[in-house]
Amino acid sequence: MSGLGLILILGGTTEAYRVAEELTRQGREFLLSTATEYGFERFRERFGKRVINIRFSHESLERFITERQISEVIDCTHPYAKEITRLAREITSKLGIPYRSETRDVQSETVLDYEKAMEFENFRAVAEFILTNGIKRPLFTTGSKDLSFVEPLKEIEIFIRVLPYEDSIKRCHEAGIKRANIIAMQGPFSAELNTAIIREFSIDCIVTKQSGREGGFFEKLKAAVDRGIWFLIVKR
Questions:
Q1: Residue 228 sits in the same domain as residue 125
Q2: Which of 104, 144, 153, 213 is surrounded by the fewest CB atoms within 10 Å?
């Protein structure tokens, strides 16, 4: 039985907010853990010191649950953040405490429930958002045909991933993108490879088109969620 002990909520999603509000109304004690600074700041405004910013490993999550005498774990992580869900299931089973999943249906293809996903009508709107939100190292995965975003973003480090064709690379370079920032690769790209590229180049934002499942859209989204970075979508 979970009793009335301390509950740990995992995730900086809308589901986490809903569960935290419900527990607050019930007068229950809880801690809400977010993996991103953005989620931490957003939730801290409402729930105060009950919000913590930790990216758990297996060891740190087990130690945290044990030391804080957590009586129940409620998993409200994003459906693409599968690793933390796996860890939470394993550790709660090992320690004999309840685990409850409140993650949304992964069959849904909506992405705007991810706190840092935004949709835009065109590249100009994307550029304006980047400039006004402190984004420093965006990665454009939108091809080389429309490079209208380069000029307004000339003062920051733009990265672009294109097919390894000479014409594509030439267009990017002539538009003003540094050769060192042109990633010429042939897909498909796994979420793991996208995550590695984000880490290697310190990317803080992915810009993509609504390319659908076949265009690797959800692999890019999963990488953005895992790294807690902006995910900006240019509509068709």
A1: yes
A2: 213
